[in-house]
């Protein structure tokens, strides 16, 4: 499908709430499924990725009622899951497969994971290797690096593991396996990554100890279901923050957005680039997750250098940050972001080639991008390459282009933001 995007001197104005956080929505279903009793979830992200997680748990015998953004999970406890009669298909979702590999490595039955063409290229060894150290039996192409992967449920033993990559998915997979392993499991992070798994273990009544970058869980824990309100996804809000900052005449307010400090690198970058922005944190937020309101207004931005331990705090926002940088005064350099190569697409290449088609001057490097500022963009044919965040970045770019943008594979956007174009229409003046 091709979407034609054509705007004449738009400005974006108004207030909105973005859909629920993808990372938290996945985890809410996972913990709800292995908890005892019912879990109700509101403001669940009804995006394809999180629906894949629901689908996997239904195949594991968990009764889940989903009504739009309201979800009810009838938890079975860790021991109540049953052997699936079908393959577990995670679609496009890296979070589903990596976390489920950990969560299900210790169940007493066998299962097989598959996914779409993008997942088929993404590395799973980063999760499989530590899980094997714990005793998991996981096999697949390229020595268990690529789907389809089969898990032969087996008894696990706790390990101490130093993460070679800054990845919340790998950290979470090991912690989830550790919850069923014999003894204690410790993960030592390279850099702090999103800590939703840690927070959710606590809000479901479990125990976890966090000492700097050292995180420990013990096995044999059980969880109790409850109610979860998922905050808006800051990674989705990022598209409006960027649009508000770079589209002349704009002013956008985003309410009820998650402001967990492990996710707010985009706010730090906007401040560094000189954005006109107010951020209010709501004291009453639940789940141990900060929630608040951000207002952003158009202003002239300046280029910056982004690298080091901020990268995991904004890894998913780099495509839209790159677009902002094309409008800033001066050059922007993004480094230490080699993880971009193993996202839904190779995002270093995708950003450079697709924004390049609209006239941006972006040089891909081994670990990031060099972006020239003050670029005027023109219309053209671009492709999301089936990557939701590339698709949304190109759609926001079309607001600045002086001709129509034809976006191929726009449907990928529904992976994390099914109502993206409705919200865009609502904000356009
Ligand atoms: C996620 C972690 C990140 C992020 C992804 C969601 C999570 O991936 O890019 O969108 O929910 O744990 P990595 O762990 O590969 O960095």
UniProtKB/TrEMBL annotation:
It comes from the Bacteria. SUPFAM superfamilies: EPT/RTPC-like. Its EC number is 2.5.1.19. Transmembrane segments: none annotated. It holds the Pfam family EPSP_synthase. Pathway: Metabolic intermediate biosynthesis; chorismate biosynthesis; chorismate from D-erythrose 4-phosphate and phosphoenolpyruvate: step 6/7. GO terms for biological process: amino acid biosynthetic process; aromatic amino acid family biosynthetic process; chorismate biosynthetic process. It is found in: Cytoplasm. The active site is at 316 (proton acceptor). HAMAP family: EPSP_synth (MF_00210). Belongs to the EPSP synthase family. This is 3-phosphoshikimate 1-carboxyvinyltransferase. It comes from Pradoshia eiseniae.
């Amino acid at each position: 499908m091709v979407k034609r995007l054509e705007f004449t001197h738009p400005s974006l104005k108004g207030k909105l709430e973005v859909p629920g956080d993808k990372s938290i929505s996945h985890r809410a279903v996972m913990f709800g499924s292995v908890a005892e009793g019912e879990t109700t979830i509101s403001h669940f992200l009804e995006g394809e990725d999180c629906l894949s997680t629901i689908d996997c748990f239904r195949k594991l015998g968990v009764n889940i009622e989903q009504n739009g953004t309201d979800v009810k999970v009838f938890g079975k406890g860790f021991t109540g899951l049953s052997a699936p009669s079908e393959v577990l298909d995670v679609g496009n979702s890296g979070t589903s497969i990596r976390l489920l590999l950990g969560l299900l490595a210790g169940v007493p039955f066998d299962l097989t994971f598959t996914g779409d063409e993008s997942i088929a290229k993404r590395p799973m060894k980063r999760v499989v290797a530590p899980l094997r150290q714990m005793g998991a039996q996981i096999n697949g192409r390229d020595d268990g690096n690529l789907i389809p992967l089969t898990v032969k449920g087996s008894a696990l033993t706790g390990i101490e593991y130093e993460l070679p990559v800054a990845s919340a998915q790998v950290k979470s997979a090991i912690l989830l396996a550790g919850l069923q392993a014999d003894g204690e499991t410790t993960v030592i992070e390279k850099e702090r990554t999103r800590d939703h798994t840690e927070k959710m273990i606590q809000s479901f009544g479990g125990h976890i100890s966090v000492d700097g970058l050292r995180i420990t869980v013990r096995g044999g824990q059980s969880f109790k279901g409850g109610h979860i309100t998922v905050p808006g996804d800051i990674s989705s809000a990022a598209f409006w923050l960027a649009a508000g900052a770079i589209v002349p005449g704009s002013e956008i307010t985003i309410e009820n957005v998650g402001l967990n400090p492990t996710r707010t690198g985009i706010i730090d970058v906007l401040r560094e680039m000189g954005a006109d922005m107010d951020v209010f944190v709501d004291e009453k937020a639940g789940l141990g997750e900060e929630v608040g309101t951000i207002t952003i207004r158009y202003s002239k931005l300046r280029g910056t250098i982004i690298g080091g331990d901020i990268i995991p705090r904004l890894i998913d926002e780099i495509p839209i940050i790159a677009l902002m940088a094309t409008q800033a005064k001066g050059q922007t350099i993004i480094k230490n972001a080699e993880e971009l190569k193993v996202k839904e697409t190779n995002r270093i290449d995708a950003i450079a080639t697709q924004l390049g088609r609209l006239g941006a001057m972006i040089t891909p490097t081994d670990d990031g991008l060099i972006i020239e500022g003050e670029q005027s963009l023109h219309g053209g044919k671009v492709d999301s390459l089936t990557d939701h965040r590339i698709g949304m970045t190109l759609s926001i770019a079309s607001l600045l282009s002086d001709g129509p943008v034809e976006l191929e594979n726009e449907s990928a956007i529904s992976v994390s933001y099914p109502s993206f174009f409705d919200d865009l229409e609502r904000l356009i003046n």
